[in-house]
Amino acid sequence: MPVPVPQQRSVPAAETSHGDLTLLVIEDDPAGTTITVPELSAAAGTRVRVRTARNLTEAARLLTDDVDCILLDLALPVAGSDSGPGNGPVSGRADELAALTHILRIAPLHAVLALTAEDDTELAAEAVRVGAQDYLFRGELDARVLSRAIRYAVERKRADLAQHQLTESRLRAQENARLERGLLPTPLLDGSGLSFAARYRPGRSRALLGGDFYDVVRTPDGTVHAMIGDVCGHGPDEAALGVELRIAWRALTLAGLCGDELLSTLQQVLEHERQSEEIFATLCTVDIAPDGRRAGLCLAGHPAPLLARHGRPARLLPYEDGGPALGLLPRARWPRRQVELGAAWSLMMYTDGLIEGRVGTGGSERLGQDGMVAMVNGRLDEGLAGEELLEAAVAEVRELNGGELTDDVAVLLLGRDPERIRRGGGSAPRSRPTSPVVARPLGVQRPPL
């Protein structure tokens, strides 16, 4: 008894995921396949819906999303204009696989079984190499063999698709990582005599960039300019905006802008690039004089830096004269405050991710700036300095928080050591961060902090 042609409706794929299968048989002579639906159901232990098509045109009409597997007769006649991937003439072995290549092209997400004669093993193997999940011989076809082949083909196709998606995801992740790594800053401090170290941890999972950003450059007049900022939010849009602001800051700084003029221009950049008017960014800029003994400080809604002089406890720089965050007030102003650094010092700039972690039993309190100052001074008493201090500070904040921090964290450390400068230590070659956790000192010795 030939395979019947039941009337079918379009069934969502989820409806066929509980054991039911739909098979599309494409054969010029349906009577040639003598497997009935009851036989298939008994062999499979579940319901099997069967559709039949006499040619590729009819198959395309019946090929809906609920079809799980296609049983294709390789002997199906195909017109030359309807066969190859380019709809051109075919010849040789390609002519024998014309129907298969056509089905693979119009049904890339469906499992395909090739049906051929017993004496054409080479053609059957070639069909698998071209893209079929398996092949069957007409003379050996029975309900149990066909049922097992259908299930095998469906599962193999699902595995192939899953592997393909995983490979694509890995490639995209690698490309994104290369892109994000290329957007991390390269400090330009050659000839400054200052040391540099940084730590950067994005809050987003499996990301290299977050909404926090920083940069350090030395202009031709010998002034060292440092900046650290934070775009509100934690997504990829905020990370992209942070990169735009950092690059704009570097360009404006190298062009000679400083203080209020620079921040006003950055606010214009933010207002034009942000996706909504609710987006804002905090910023802290420091410009260190060529002699390294004094600096200008501008705060735009950002936490004040931490200054440590040789032999003295670290303390916060004044923050009373700071201005609002960028993007909040259209005609805001950001006063520049002069700060005395001294001969030997270290300056730590950070984002609020470092001070907003939870502390105490139950995690009801924040670390805060006072807690951070006490923590840093405790590490100084232990003799830690430079990159070791930054590593210990970030690790302790995570430990106090009881796990990984959800907010982005950026910390950078600039230092001046007159003894090293007199010995001709200078600055080490500039380097580019290569991971989310960055520690690249630019000096031979560590700063006091």
Automatic annotation (TrEMBL):
Q: Which SMART domains match?
A: PP2C_SIG, REC
Plastid among the record's keywords?
A: no
Q: Where is this region: Disordered?
A: 421-449
Q: Which domain of life is it from?
A: Bacteria
Q: Does the keyword Transmembrane apply?
A: no
Under Enzyme Commission nomenclature, its number is 3.1.3.16
Question: Which Pfam families does its entry note?
Answer: SpoIIE
Q: Which key words tag this protein in UniProt? A: Hydrolase, Phosphoprotein
4-aspartylphosphate: modified positions? 73
Q: Where is the Response regulatory domain?
A: 22-153
Any single GO molecular-function term of the entry would be: protein serine/threonine phosphatase activity
Query: What Gene3D superfamilies does its record include?
Result: 3.40.50.2300, PPM-type phosphatase domain (3.60.40.10)
What PANTHER family does this protein's entry cite?
STAGE II SPORULATION PROTEIN E, STAGE II SPORULATION PROTEIN E-RELATED
Q: Which protein is depicted?
A: PP2C family protein-serine/threonine phosphatase
Q: What is the lineage of its organism?
A: Bacteria, Bacillati, Actinomycetota, Actinomycetes, Kitasatosporales
